[in-house]
Amino acid sequence: MKLDMITILTLTTIAYLISVLVTRYMAVHHVISDVPNTRSSHNVPTPRSGGLGIFIVFMFISLVFWVNNRFDIPEWFFPFVLPAILIGAHSLYDDISGRSAIEKLLVQLLAASVVVSSGLLIELPFGGRWLSYLITMLWIVGMTNATNFMDGLDGLVSGIFSLALVFFCMILSSVGHYDLYLFGLALIAGLMGFLIYNFPPAKIFMGDVGSCLLGFVYAVMVVIMLDENQSPWIMLACVLAVFNLLFDVGFTVIRRLFQGENIMQAHRSHLLQIMNRLGYNHLTVS
Questions:
Q1: Domain count for the chain
Q2: Dihedral class, residue 216 (left if φ above 0, else alpha if ψ from -120 to 50, else beta)
Q3: Half-sphere exposure of residue 187, counting CA atoms within 13 Å on the CB side?
Q4: Alpha helix stretches (DSSP H) within the chain
Q5: How far is it, in rounded angstroms, from Cα 167 to Cα 218?
Q6: Does 36 fall in a domain?
Q7: What is the pLDDT of residues 121-159, one digit of tens each?
Q8: Each residue's pLDDT tens digit, 62-119
Q9: Range of the structural domain that residue 132 is part of
Q10: pTM of the model
């Protein structure tokens, strides 16, 4: 679906306004608040779940895409959109009531299973199809959790993904994948609307509804693009776009394993949190 410039500008403007209005409402009315604890990097109760605006933007652009392509819908559309909505909805539920780590992981595994069972895979030149299934599942679930883990400082995740998605859209444009390009632009617009209120010092936090959704959507969009263009260089470029996020999580998990710590237990030992405790402010670290 190749859209004209006026349509693209209109849709991204609407996406931006949706995000701004929803985020502002959540911030002003303290619909869901994050009360500080021993792991927090803030000292006063702060509104959270500002990522709801990004979630609504995703559903809006999915609806627009479906209406415009309902008689010629791509095979990847429903295995992409429906699991993403599941992740967003359950993550919002988690923000409201607090769900266990096991429950969240099971939901993520279910959502990722829907994606890979549809045939969307990171194809490998070795190891057979089972290895492609495993690597794709690890990529999707790992990216979802890594993004959630890293949402600990003002403007960090929203800033990383704003830049990563700009880079991703450049790749999509170069390979002519205009369907995903529309999703990428809408998410950038949603992030820009949210970042106004999340820029240090943050007036609202993203919450799991934003961080888990972003990680999942980015990971699956990469798989969709690779499904049509199996280039190792494209995969490498997409990983490098979020490498600082992946490196911090990977380094922290490995270090905690070597120290005999329970990696499923909440902690405050990510590199970003250590830098913050050393005196670097949120803006500098982000």
A1: 1
A2: alpha
A3: 29
A4: 5-29, 52-69, 77-97, 101-117, 128-150, 156-175, 178-198, 208-228, 232-241, 243-258, 271-277, 282-285
A5: 12
A6: no
A7: 988 877 778 899 999 999 999 999 989 887 777 778 888
A8: 999 999 888 889 999 999 999 999 999 999 999 998 888 899 999 999 999 999 999 9
A9: 9-29+42-285
A10: 0.88
